[in-house]
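Posting for a labmate who doesn't have an account.
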Amino acid sequence: MDSYDEIPYESTPFPETHPAALAPLARLFGIEAPDPEGCRVLEIGCASGGNLIPMALELPQSRFLGIELSERQAADGAGLIQRLGLGNIQIRQGDIAQFNEAGEGFDYIIAHGIYSWVPAGVREGMLTLIRQQLSPNGIAYISYNTLPGWRWRGILRDMLLFHVREARTAGERMERAWQLLDFVEQGMANDQSLNARFLRQELKRIRGHHPSYLYHEYLESENHPFLFTQFVADAGRHGLSYVCESDLQAMFSQSLGDETGAWVEQQSGDMLTLWQYLDFAANRNLRQSLLCRDDRTPRYEIDLGRFTGYSFFANLRPPNKLDLRRGNKDVEFIRPGGERHSVEHPLTQAALSLLGECYPDAIPLNALTEEARQRVAQAGNPRQAEEVDAMQSELFALYSHQAVGVRIKPRQWPEGNPAVPRLNALAREQLALGMRQLTAAHLASIKLDPFGYRIALLCNGSNPLEAIIEAMTAIMPSEPELAKLLSPGQKNHPQRLRQSVEEGCREMIGLFAHHGLLE
């Protein structure tokens, strides 16, 4: 039995692989990538479609094909497609070595979590297939483990592979691997050496992932990290040229600080060498690279004129009420995961505040700029309301750090009806499968705690908000998963209980609406 049949890899979305995210990146570097609306997309190793199916729902005029070796995962994905009634997507079970699709090719080819995890012959075949199938201005996305950073993770992989060497099944290997991880964590609890600190950090990261991640990242027989320049050379032998990274800040020496960045630039005779030195300096362990056909020539001087023609979205919020009267005072905007980004200019602060209010919609820069200027001017700061170049510079920096997203066209999501909430079809299917992670706008993932999960089950379009509040109030004390969330005061005072449940329900349904999950 294939290990991916025995332990299916968690099939989740990867926002950076969306054609709507790849197109504006490629165009910044001079490759006129096709419009995501009406494109053709191939995903190699698509699992059960957790990444591809949401794209097909969002882009009904585009065509999607997923290839998956695991029979179990391919069948799961095909079943979900059928239940959703989608006619613009297929998931086929098969080996990419036998893949041969006649026709005009694909505008976007995605290979996330495949390249480093297959034998050399399969990698060679994958690059050949991508060159054969990529349309003239098409873009391929490939993720892969990189050196030197992955050497640290390789230490843990070597330990685990040795410990599970006599296990016969994937399940036994997983059990023995967790035994070793628990032992290492306990044994190094008070060890402050560099190696112990790294292992504790890595164990924390592993525990934050789905259990299947441990197996397929650390226990599979194939896992090969590469130097960036080695990957680019291998792609070049197959008629493919490097364009850029989906994580744009990985291409800028300034991300290392002025002194280190200047030293790295002195060592580099060309851009590819510079980017390799950046990997050394940052100890990078993963890249997510964009490629094009070698009959197209990327420009490594970014076209900022294209950037100003895009539409913007961001899910950021300031910690306190903004004071736009005060110029050039840093304000930290916070992402949902807690990551903080310092923003200096009042015009940028006003723009981000507006994007947070309008999320998940993507707003054209000219409209965003005009509204931000009005807010800053009305706050009593007319001079800085005109400093548009400073705002655009900060927006680009935030985009390069993936704190702000762009699209080549404006995009609006349905607001839904929070008074009688109904989750969209994909979210309802995910809940029916017992999933506690929903795919939202821009391929974002929303993890549900027990309280949110029970509310989501009631958001089927049949229950008004008041009925959801009553139902949740009734079940909270009796459901063990929910009861432990209650304080003694809530358990013993029905009025307090109802009030807290009502607040929680309104907040959760507001969160669903904010992420474009309601229809």
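Reply:
Got it, the structure tokens are right above this. The chain has a mean pLDDT of 92.
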